[in-house]
Amino acid sequence: MTAVASRYLSDSERVKDVMQDAFIRIFERFGSFRYRGEGSLRAWMTRIVVNFALQDLRRTNRLLPAEELPDTPDDGGQDFADVPIDVIHNMICRLPDGYRTVFNLFVFERLKHKEIAALLGIKENSSASQFLRARAMLAKEIEEYRRING
Fold this sequence. Notes:
- It contains seven helices and no strands.
- The protein is an all-alpha fold.
- The chain folds into two domains: 1-62, Rna Polymerase Sigma Factor, Chain: A (Orthogonal Bundle), CATH 1.10.1740; 68-150, Arc Repressor Mutant, subunit A (Orthogonal Bundle), CATH 1.10.10.10.
- Helix 5 (97-107) crosses helix 7.
- The termini are far apart.
């Protein structure tokens, strides 16, 4: 669950705070959990952690409207199978908060831009734009990593 929180929050102290709050909620609400097959407990706990991470981002005004974000070039649909997963994780963690949040919700939580927009209180187009910009930034980082590491 800590890995889930750190996908959204770059500061380890904020991750710890979110994890503490999330696990308090998990323990408080465990009686309301309903088993729905393999993986349902993990999915339920993950949703709680994600919600607390998003609350933290909103509370600290770390989500910028798309109009305030810099433009980035298109990524060209690069493959990144040759880049170690921990390197990719670090690249994702270095994304600006808004980009990282939308990227994680779209890629890892598999939400649609309409759902992300409703969850974050932004426009659907802003969600799509932030995702594309995040993907482009990651592509640039991957290209740089490959250039340096051969």
